[in-house]
Amino acid sequence: MASPEPFVPALRFHALTRAYDRVLALSLDEERHKRALVEQASLAPGMDVLDLGCGTGTLTLALKRHQPAARVTGLDLDPEALGIARRKAEDAGAELTFVQGSATEPPLVAGSFDRVLTSLMLHHLVREQKQRCLRAAWALLRPGGELHILDWGRAQDPLMALAFLPVRVLDGLAPTRDNARGNLPELLREAGFADVAVTRSARTVFGSLAFLRGTRPAS
Ligand SMILES: C[S@@+](CC[C@H](N)C(=O)[O-])C[C@H]1O[C@@H](n2cnc3c(N)ncnc32)[C@H](O)[C@@H]1O
Fold this sequence. Notes:
By secondary structure, the chain is of the alpha/beta class. The chain has helices at 20-27, 30-40, 58-66, 79-92, 127-140, 158-171, 173-180, 184-190; strands spanning 48-52, 71-76, 97-100, 113-119, 141-152, 194-204, 207-215. Helix 2 crosses helix 3 and helix 6 packs antiparallel against helix 7 (173-180). The radius of gyration is 16 Å and the shape is globular.
Protein backbone atom coordinates (compact mmCIF):
# COMPACT_ATOMS: atom_id res chain seq x y z
CA MET A 1 0.00 0.00 0.00
CA ALA A 2 1.34 3.48 -0.86
CA SER A 3 2.38 5.51 2.19
CA PRO A 4 0.16 8.54 2.85
CA GLU A 5 1.34 11.84 1.32
CA PRO A 6 3.08 14.05 3.89
CA PHE A 7 1.45 17.45 4.41
CA VAL A 8 1.75 20.54 6.57
CA PRO A 9 -1.22 20.56 9.00
CA ALA A 10 -3.33 23.69 9.57
CA LEU A 11 -1.08 25.13 12.31
CA ARG A 12 2.08 23.18 11.36
CA PHE A 13 1.78 20.68 14.23
CA HIS A 14 -0.97 18.07 14.49
CA ALA A 15 -1.43 18.81 18.20
CA LEU A 16 -2.52 22.37 17.33
CA THR A 17 -5.26 21.45 14.81
CA ARG A 18 -7.91 21.51 17.55
CA ALA A 19 -6.99 25.13 18.31
CA TYR A 20 -7.03 26.23 14.63
CA ASP A 21 -10.53 27.73 14.53
CA ARG A 22 -9.99 29.77 17.69
CA VAL A 23 -6.56 31.02 16.59
CA LEU A 24 -7.88 32.08 13.19
CA ALA A 25 -11.00 33.78 14.51
CA LEU A 26 -8.94 35.75 17.04
CA SER A 27 -6.04 36.73 14.80
CA LEU A 28 -7.24 37.15 11.24
CA ASP A 29 -10.72 38.66 10.92
CA GLU A 30 -11.44 35.32 9.29
CA GLU A 31 -15.17 35.76 8.82
CA ARG A 32 -14.80 38.98 6.83
CA HIS A 33 -12.12 37.61 4.50
CA LYS A 34 -13.88 34.31 3.89
CA ARG A 35 -17.17 36.13 3.24
CA ALA A 36 -15.39 38.27 0.63
CA LEU A 37 -14.07 35.12 -1.07
CA VAL A 38 -17.51 33.49 -1.05
CA GLU A 39 -19.06 36.62 -2.57
CA GLN A 40 -16.34 36.78 -5.21
CA ALA A 41 -17.26 33.25 -6.36
CA SER A 42 -20.81 34.31 -7.50
CA LEU A 43 -22.45 30.99 -6.64
CA ALA A 44 -25.73 30.07 -8.29
CA PRO A 45 -28.35 27.41 -7.42
CA GLY A 46 -27.45 23.94 -8.69
CA MET A 47 -23.72 24.59 -8.89
CA ASP A 48 -21.15 22.01 -7.83
CA VAL A 49 -18.61 23.70 -5.59
CA LEU A 50 -15.32 22.37 -4.19
CA ASP A 51 -13.32 23.72 -1.24
CA LEU A 52 -9.76 22.41 -1.77
CA GLY A 53 -7.78 22.02 1.47
CA CYS A 54 -10.95 22.70 3.46
CA GLY A 55 -9.35 22.03 6.86
CA THR A 56 -11.93 22.43 9.61
CA GLY A 57 -14.62 23.35 7.07
CA THR A 58 -15.31 27.00 7.94
CA LEU A 59 -15.29 28.12 4.29
CA THR A 60 -17.13 24.95 3.17
CA LEU A 61 -19.94 25.77 5.58
CA ALA A 62 -19.98 29.46 4.59
CA LEU A 63 -20.36 28.44 0.94
CA LYS A 64 -23.38 26.27 1.71
CA ARG A 65 -24.95 28.96 3.91
CA HIS A 66 -24.47 31.53 1.15
CA GLN A 67 -25.99 29.31 -1.55
CA PRO A 68 -28.03 26.48 0.06
CA ALA A 69 -29.03 25.19 -3.40
CA ALA A 70 -25.41 24.44 -4.34
CA ARG A 71 -23.77 21.03 -3.78
CA VAL A 72 -20.65 21.71 -1.72
CA THR A 73 -17.70 19.37 -1.20
CA GLY A 74 -14.65 19.87 1.01
CA LEU A 75 -11.39 17.99 0.47
CA ASP A 76 -8.42 17.77 2.81
CA LEU A 77 -5.64 15.32 3.63
CA ASP A 78 -5.96 15.69 7.39
CA PRO A 79 -8.46 13.25 8.96
CA GLU A 80 -8.49 15.23 12.23
CA ALA A 81 -9.39 18.51 10.51
CA LEU A 82 -12.05 16.66 8.50
CA GLY A 83 -13.48 15.23 11.73
CA ILE A 84 -13.92 18.78 13.07
CA ALA A 85 -15.43 19.89 9.74
CA ARG A 86 -17.97 17.03 9.78
CA ARG A 87 -18.99 17.85 13.36
CA LYS A 88 -19.47 21.53 12.47
CA ALA A 89 -21.61 20.60 9.46
CA GLU A 90 -23.69 18.24 11.57
CA ASP A 91 -24.21 20.87 14.30
CA ALA A 92 -25.30 23.36 11.64
CA GLY A 93 -27.60 20.83 9.93
CA ALA A 94 -25.74 21.47 6.66
CA GLU A 95 -25.57 18.82 3.96
CA LEU A 96 -21.92 18.81 2.92
CA THR A 97 -19.66 16.14 1.45
CA PHE A 98 -16.16 15.77 2.88
CA VAL A 99 -13.48 13.75 1.13
CA GLN A 100 -10.06 12.78 2.43
CA GLY A 101 -7.46 13.18 -0.30
CA SER A 102 -4.68 15.29 -1.68
CA ALA A 103 -5.21 18.58 -3.45
CA THR A 104 -2.41 17.57 -5.81
CA GLU A 105 -4.18 14.37 -6.86
CA PRO A 106 -7.82 14.76 -5.80
CA PRO A 107 -9.88 11.56 -5.89
CA LEU A 108 -12.73 13.38 -7.66
CA VAL A 109 -14.25 13.25 -11.14
CA ALA A 110 -12.67 15.54 -13.75
CA GLY A 111 -14.94 18.26 -15.14
CA SER A 112 -17.49 17.95 -12.36
CA PHE A 113 -17.29 21.36 -10.60
CA ASP A 114 -18.49 24.85 -11.51
CA ARG A 115 -16.39 26.52 -8.84
CA VAL A 116 -13.23 25.51 -7.01
CA LEU A 117 -12.22 27.62 -4.03
CA THR A 118 -9.15 27.34 -1.86
CA SER A 119 -8.31 29.32 1.23
CA LEU A 120 -4.97 29.42 3.08
CA MET A 121 -3.86 26.07 1.64
CA LEU A 122 -1.57 26.88 -1.28
CA HIS A 123 1.12 28.31 1.01
CA HIS A 124 1.42 24.81 2.52
CA LEU A 125 2.58 23.43 -0.84
CA VAL A 126 6.04 23.71 -2.42
CA ARG A 127 6.13 24.94 -6.02
CA GLU A 128 5.87 21.53 -7.66
CA GLN A 129 2.86 20.67 -5.46
CA LYS A 130 1.26 24.05 -6.18
CA GLN A 131 1.65 23.36 -9.90
CA ARG A 132 0.06 19.91 -9.59
CA CYS A 133 -2.74 21.31 -7.41
CA LEU A 134 -3.56 24.11 -9.86
CA ARG A 135 -3.52 21.72 -12.84
CA ALA A 136 -5.83 19.41 -10.85
CA ALA A 137 -8.17 22.32 -10.05
CA TRP A 138 -8.27 23.20 -13.78
CA ALA A 139 -9.12 19.59 -14.66
CA LEU A 140 -11.86 19.38 -12.01
CA LEU A 141 -13.64 22.44 -13.39
CA ARG A 142 -16.19 22.34 -16.17
CA PRO A 143 -15.31 24.55 -19.16
CA GLY A 144 -16.16 28.11 -18.11
CA GLY A 145 -15.75 27.19 -14.43
CA GLU A 146 -13.84 29.40 -12.04
CA LEU A 147 -11.10 29.06 -9.44
CA HIS A 148 -11.14 31.50 -6.50
CA ILE A 149 -8.22 31.76 -4.09
CA LEU A 150 -7.56 33.44 -0.77
CA ASP A 151 -3.95 33.09 0.39
CA TRP A 152 -0.85 34.98 1.42
CA GLY A 153 0.42 37.27 -1.32
CA ARG A 154 3.26 39.68 -1.99
CA ALA A 155 3.68 42.24 0.78
CA GLN A 156 2.63 45.78 -0.14
CA ASP A 157 5.44 47.22 2.00
CA PRO A 158 8.30 46.23 4.37
CA LEU A 159 5.96 46.14 7.39
CA MET A 160 3.76 43.52 5.71
CA ALA A 161 6.89 41.53 4.70
CA LEU A 162 7.99 41.57 8.35
CA ALA A 163 4.53 40.57 9.56
CA PHE A 164 4.59 37.56 7.20
CA LEU A 165 7.86 36.22 8.67
CA PRO A 166 6.30 34.23 11.57
CA VAL A 167 3.98 32.45 9.10
CA ARG A 168 6.94 31.71 6.82
CA VAL A 169 8.96 30.28 9.71
CA LEU A 170 5.99 28.26 11.00
CA ASP A 171 4.79 26.81 7.68
CA GLY A 172 8.18 26.67 5.95
CA LEU A 173 10.24 29.02 3.78
CA ALA A 174 10.01 26.76 0.71
CA PRO A 175 6.20 26.40 0.55
CA THR A 176 5.62 30.09 1.29
CA ARG A 177 8.23 31.41 -1.21
CA ASP A 178 5.97 31.76 -4.27
CA ASN A 179 3.34 33.47 -2.12
CA ALA A 180 5.86 35.96 -0.75
CA ARG A 181 7.14 36.70 -4.26
CA GLY A 182 3.67 37.25 -5.68
CA ASN A 183 4.03 34.34 -8.13
CA LEU A 184 0.52 32.89 -7.80
CA PRO A 185 -0.93 34.66 -10.89
CA GLU A 186 1.91 33.31 -13.04
CA LEU A 187 1.37 29.78 -11.67
CA LEU A 188 -2.36 30.01 -12.47
CA ARG A 189 -1.62 31.04 -16.08
CA GLU A 190 0.92 28.20 -16.41
CA ALA A 191 -1.80 25.76 -15.27
CA GLY A 192 -4.06 26.91 -18.12
CA PHE A 193 -6.28 29.47 -16.37
CA ALA A 194 -7.46 32.53 -18.32
CA ASP A 195 -8.63 35.94 -17.06
CA VAL A 196 -6.27 35.60 -14.10
CA ALA A 197 -6.46 38.52 -11.70
CA VAL A 198 -5.56 39.53 -8.18
CA THR A 199 -8.94 40.97 -7.31
CA ARG A 200 -7.98 42.57 -4.00
CA SER A 201 -5.53 42.41 -1.13
CA ALA A 202 -5.92 42.91 2.60
CA ARG A 203 -3.46 43.90 5.32
CA THR A 204 -3.43 41.61 8.38
CA VAL A 205 -1.26 41.14 11.46
CA PHE A 206 0.36 38.20 9.63
CA GLY A 207 0.99 39.96 6.32
CA SER A 208 -0.86 40.59 3.08
CA LEU A 209 -3.72 38.40 1.99
CA ALA A 210 -4.35 38.14 -1.74
CA PHE A 211 -7.64 37.27 -3.45
CA LEU A 212 -7.25 35.76 -6.91
CA ARG A 213 -9.46 34.38 -9.62
CA GLY A 214 -8.97 32.43 -12.84
CA THR A 215 -11.27 30.78 -15.39
CA ARG A 216 -11.03 27.49 -17.25
CA PRO A 217 -11.72 28.71 -20.76
CA ALA A 218 -15.05 27.58 -22.23
CA SER A 219 -13.33 25.94 -25.22
C1 LIG B 1 -4.10 26.70 7.08
S1 LIG B 1 -5.18 25.37 6.77
C2 LIG B 1 -6.51 26.16 5.89
C3 LIG B 1 -7.79 25.43 6.10
C4 LIG B 1 -9.02 26.12 5.50
N1 LIG B 1 -8.98 26.13 4.04
C5 LIG B 1 -9.18 27.52 6.04
O1 LIG B 1 -9.16 28.47 5.25
O2 LIG B 1 -9.33 27.65 7.25
C6 LIG B 1 -4.38 24.45 5.48
C7 LIG B 1 -5.05 23.14 5.19
O3 LIG B 1 -4.45 22.56 4.04
C8 LIG B 1 -4.40 21.17 4.22
N2 LIG B 1 -3.42 20.62 3.29
C9 LIG B 1 -2.09 20.78 3.28
N3 LIG B 1 -1.55 20.12 2.24
C10 LIG B 1 -2.57 19.51 1.60
C11 LIG B 1 -2.67 18.68 0.44
N4 LIG B 1 -1.60 18.34 -0.27
N5 LIG B 1 -3.87 18.24 0.06
C12 LIG B 1 -5.00 18.58 0.77
N6 LIG B 1 -4.97 19.35 1.86
C13 LIG B 1 -3.77 19.81 2.28
C14 LIG B 1 -4.05 20.99 5.69
O4 LIG B 1 -4.41 19.72 6.15
C15 LIG B 1 -4.88 22.11 6.31
O5 LIG B 1 -6.14 21.64 6.71
